[in-house]
Amino acid sequence: IYQTKNTDKMTILTKLQIDMIRSKISGLGFFVPENVVSNDDLSKLMDTSNDWISERTGIKNRRWVGDKKLTTSLMGTYAAEKAIADAGIDKNDIDFIIFSTLSPDYYFPGSGVLLQRNLGIKEIGALDVRNQCSGFIYGLSIADQYIKSGMYKNILLVGSEIHSGGLDKSTKGRSVSVIFGDGAGAAIISSTKSENGILSTHLHSEGKYAEELAVIKPATTHWIDKIKSDQNDESFWPYMNGNFVFKNAVVRFEQVIKEGLEHSNLNLEDISLLIPHQANLRISQFIQKKLKLSDSQVFNNIMKYGNTTAASIPIALTEAYQSNLKKKNDIVVLAAFGSGFTWGSAVIKW
Ligand code: COA
Description:
Helix 5 (111-119) links the parallel strand 4 (96-100) and strand 5 (125-129). The radius of gyration is 20 Å and the shape is globular. It is 35% helix and 22% strand. It is an alpha/beta fold. The longest helix is centred in the last third of the chain and has 22 residues, at 242-263. Mean pLDDT is 93; it is low at 1-6. Helix 4 (72-87) crosses helix 5 (111-119). The structure holds coenzyme A (COA). The site of coenzyme A has 19 residues, from helix 3, helix 7 and helix 9.
């Protein structure tokens, strides 16, 4: 690639320049709705209890938008404004938008363009990522490649979800609806010439399990008229094979964390902070035990917000960052697993 005729000098220079560019997280922010929904609140809607939810998931509270006029893109905008301020850049310095969500405002267009409109910024590109709980890591990986190639300098990456409107809050839907919360998190990914920044990202998928955690309808396979014609068909509610998801999650989390570390010749002891996607506290605890990590090496905040899918990592990352849990040169590992199945990790030298 770098030895084309007559241009050896120039291509070697280009390669050197590319090698020097790394991407880093330069700003973070999150937004959650004010409306706190406790486990006791849920037990008024369905046959469940604080004990069941706490023991099985670790969740105590979650935020649901309630009657507030919030949308996925609006919550993403509030989180983005905080991340832009934290990065100390002008919003017009952003070159590209990546919006990760499984609960977009519209079927189409995606929420990225709505974020561009809400922020009132110039006509930059906006990409929507549909990778559910792994959405933030997938988005981070895309941002990392664009920055390393030299194409963009500042990318706005947002994960935002409104689950509450799409959950079956009757007893029938209780194994899913108690887990999910609404929220948004945002990061500015910027180019840097420092050796600190994103060291690697690794992404995976296994589509044979696509229907084990999914919302099947409405979609091109089942348009609205088909749903209406079968009153007993309720597959517009999320379906989750909880036990199967749990078993796969713990295996994939471990694999992809190790894969990321090995890529940079790092060991588990080198991890300063692991921020797993906040799927279920028991999953995080299982991984912590398996990897023999101390309590101070793993960050969890699912107790407060529930599982916010694509928003969970940027919300947790922002809270960890605001609590001064990360110091310069710390090795921060992000990892996620979710619907698809998809999973991934990012290793960052802070
Ligand atoms: N409240 C009270 N009881 C409930 C309940 C609720 N919210 N949800 C389910 N139950 C009941 C079930 O009906 C079942 O009752 P039964 O034994 O009389 O049939 C019993 O609790 C056990 O259900 P089960 O589904 O086997 O529980 P579990 O131990 O597997 O826990 C999950 C369920 C969902 C908490 C668990 O499977 C899990 O965390 N999976 C991973 C989910 C996840 O992380 N998803 C996100 C991935 S990104």
